[in-house]
Amino acid sequence: MNSGSGSGGGNSGAVSGHGGSGHGTGGRKDAYAYGRRNGVNLPALRGHNDALVLDLLRGAGPAGLGRTELAARTGLTPQAVSKITARLGADGLVAEAGRAASTGGKPRTLLRLVPDVRHAVGVHLDRDELRAVRVDLAGRVVAESEGPLDFRAGPEEAVEAVVRAVARVVDPSGPPLLGVGVAAPGPLDHRVGVMGRVTGFPSWKGFPLRGVLEGRLGLPVLLDKDTNAGATAAAGAWLRATWPDADAEADINADADADVDSEVEADVGAGSGTGVGAGPGGDGHAGGGPRTCVYLHVGTGLGAGLWLGGGVYRGVRSAAGEFGHQVLLLDGPPCRCGARGCVEVLCLEAVNRGDLAGAARIVGEAAANLVALLDVDRVLLGGRVVAAAPDVFVARVGAVLAARRLDPARPVVALAGAGVAEGAAEMALAPLFGHAG
User: Fold this and answer.
1) pLDDT tens, 317-342?
2) Contact 344/324 with Cβ under 8 angstroms?
3) What integer is the mean pLDDT of 128-151?
4) Which of 24, 105, 244, 291 is the most core-located residue (most Cβ within 10 A)?
5) pLDDT tens profile 224-278
6) CB burial class (10 A; 0-12, 13-18, 19+) of residue 406?
7) Does the pLDDT of residue 179 top 70, yes or no?
8) What is the full DSSP assignment across 272-292?
9) Contact, 362 vs 346, CB < 8 A?
C-alpha cells in the first residue's frame, strides 16, 4: 500500500479551459463506447474540443495517435487539431510519443496524454470500511489507504474519516488535484449531493455530504452511489480495452496537415456538433448496437450500476439500480428494506452460511431478470463477496443466464476488473475528458 501524506485541502488545481462537459452541443453523451466522437469548429466550444482530443489520447494509451487520426475521429480539420494539441502541449497535458512507421511519406508524429500532470482522489464509503485512492489521468492508482468505518455512527464521523483518508493519499508536493469522487450506499441524490434514507441507516437521510466535504477539503467533490461508481470503473476499463484500431479509421496521408488552408475550418462527418459519432456500422460499435452493461456489486449489500447508451443511467430521481430489492421469493425472509424475499436477504443468508455457490445462483437469477429487461451486452461482477470466490460467481451467474436466455446472443459474464474507489476517482477525472461527472 502506497500512502501519501499531508493535508487533503491544500492541493487543488482545476485545468482552465479543458474541463468542459459538452453542454450546449446538441445532446452530447459521454462515450468511451464510440469509435468516433464529433468535434465542433467553433471558438466558443474550445473547451469541448480540447476535452474531446484529450479523451481520444487517453484511450490510445502510451502509443498515442497522430494528428490525422485525431482529425478523422473528431471530424475536426487537421489545422484545428494542430491548434488544440499545441494548447494542450503548452499546458503539459500532451507530449510527443515518437513517430509512426513510414508508409512511404513523412513519418507521422504521434501524441500521447501525459498522465502524471494531474491527479484525482476516489473514496468508497462502505457500511463497515473506507477505501481511498489517488489516481493519475490514465486512472492508475498511485496511492491508496483503507481502514474500518462504522457507517451506523452517522455522517459526521464518516466525514472525519474521509478527510483523514484523503490526507493519507494526497502528496502535497505532487501534481494538482482535479477533485474528489465519493461513492456511498444509496439511495442518494447525485444532482445535489444529498444522502437519502440508506436502508438500515436512517440518520443519513438528508445529509448534504457533498457540500460538507467540499467545505472541509477545499476541492470539487462529486457524490454518487457505490454501484454507479463501480459501473463507471468497470465499463470504462472494458470500453477502453475494445477501442477501435486507429489505422482502421484513418487511412490519411501524413502530409495532409500541410495541404489544408489554415483559414478554412469546415465541419467533417455526419452529425458534427452532437458530440456522439457513429462507430463502425453507424451504431456505436462493430457489434451492432450501443455498448451496454450492468455492474452487480455483492458486498455488505447488493446493488446494480447501469451503463446504458454510453454512460451511467441514474433515473430521474437518482434511484435506478436497486437490484438487491427485487423480490424473488414471495413470503420469504424479511429484508431490511421492509419487503420479504428480496435478492439481497436471500443472497446474504447464503453467504453467511458459507454457501457461495448458492449465493452466486441467486445473483444469477436476479441478473437474468435484469438482462431480460434491459438487453445488455455484459454483466460485470464486483464487491468483496465476489472477490472471495470469483470463479464461482462468474461460472454460476453465467450458467443461470445460459439456461434462461431468450435470445441466442447471451451477454458475457466477467469480473469488473476495477474497484468502486477507482470508479469514484474516475468521476472526478470525467470533466477533464468532456464526460459528465
Assistant:
1) 777 888 989 999 999 999 988 899 99
2) yes
3) 95
4) 291
5) 999 999 999 887 776 656 544 433 333 333 333 333 333 223 322 222 222 222 2
6) exposed
7) yes
8) TTSS----GGGSSSTTSS---
9) yes
Query: How far is the CA of 233 from the CAs of 59, 245, 252, 256, 359, in angstroms?
Result: 14, 22, 33, 37, 24
188-225 CB burial, b ≥16 within 10 A, e <16: bbbeebbbbebbebeebeebbbbebbbebbebbbbbbb
Choice among 6-15, 76-85, 298-307 with the minimum mean pLDDT? 6-15
Report in angstroms the alpha-carbon separations of 342 from 151, 172, 271, 357.
Answer: 22, 46, 45, 18
C-alpha cell at 217: 477539503
**pLDDT for residue 30:** 33
Per-chain mean pLDDT for the chain: 79
Nearest one of 68, 53, 56, 57 to 100, comparing CA atoms = 68
pLDDT of residue 193: 95
Spell out the residues 6+ positions from residue 248 whose beta carbon is closer than 8 angstroms to its own: none
Sign of CA dihedral 240, 93, 27, 41: negative
DSSP state of 30: -
Report residue 80: phi and psi, to 5°.
-65, -40
What is the DSSP-derived secondary structure letter of residue 242?
A: T
Helical ranges in 154-293 per DSSP H = 155-169, 209-217, 226-241, 246-249
Q: What type of residue sits at position 41?
A: N
Task: Write the single-letter amino acid at 5.
Answer: S
pLDDT for the residue 102: 63
The secondary structure of 286-337 as a DSSP string is: TTSS---EEEEEESSSEEEEEEETTEEE--TTS-TT-GGGSBSSTT-SB-TT
